[in-house]
Amino acid sequence: MPERNNGLCLYGIKACDTMKKARTWLDQQGLSYTFHDYKSAGIDRAHLQAWCEEHGWQTVLNRAGTTFRKLGEAQKADLDQAKAIELMLAQPSMIKRPVLDLGDKTLIGFKPDTYAAELAVKN
Questions:
Q1: Catalytic residue of the set 10, 12, 16, 88
Q2: Which family does it belong to (predicted)?
């Protein structure tokens, strides 16, 4: 199947199992994308701000992950968007992954059905 370049950018962490599933799915559909590893390359405030504005910081911040759970109670207390962004800037592992930038919007997390619907992929 020929690759279709849709200007997609996949943000996440290379070793994450969910990331591997998303990358495999995109590859199987013949979709090309740029991969941005925000653990090694970092992430800027503008991206986090935009994702939080689109989805809400509660969706973007991965509170189920080990990195967040290891925080002290004081760091977890009274969270709001500004504090959540500071935490994610300091430790990008706290960003829910993957984030797939479609150009006009983003998808957070990986659900094959959602990816297929948003990318109009026929299985």
A1: 16
A2: Belongs to the ArsC family.
Domains along the sequence of the chain with CATH: 1-38+97-122 (3.40.30.10), 43-96 (3.40.30.10)
52 is catalytic: no
CA atoms of 37 and 31, how far apart (whole Å): 18
pLDDT per residue over 17-64, tens digit each?
999 999 999 999 999 999 999 989 999 999 999 999 999 999 999 999
Q: Which residues of 109-120 are buried (b: 16+ CB within 10 A; e: fewer)?
A: ebeeeebeeebe
The pTM of this model reads 0.89
